[in-house]
Specification:
Blueprint: H1 17-40, H2 44-86, H3 100-106, H4 114-123, H5 129-135
Helix pairs in contact: 1-2, 2-3, 3-5
Length: 146
Amino acid sequence: MAEKVPQTFENHARFVPAYHFVLFGILLINLGWSVYRLYRTFSFETIIGLLLAFGLMLLFFFARIFALRVQDRVIRLEMRLRMEKVLPADLQPRILEFTPSQLIALRFASDAELPELARRVLTEKIEDRRAIKKLIQQWNPDYLRV
């Protein structure tokens, strides 16, 4: 089994070439072809073809969005449970103050780094995921992200 490349801020985003490029390209070509066919030969069949092509594009986007939304909910729960164990007593009552976006970014922080980083995020009201991720010194990889 191949060794995993150590995950960092720079390389943590994940692309699946067959999904993000090949499938999207095929669906985009299909949509363009359907528009062309409708323009060249207006008929009930070409209208249905365009609607189907548009529906497939929506399916492509929503399949990704729904999977990410479910994973974000799981991360939110996982981080709240982790914070109950790792944060000091004075920060534990504030766990519900974290936004889902903050929790999603903070999941990359190590247990040792999490308490101080969580305090900073709340105190400075840092909302931007990228900004929070850039503050992390000891990266805790997430190789299971959808």
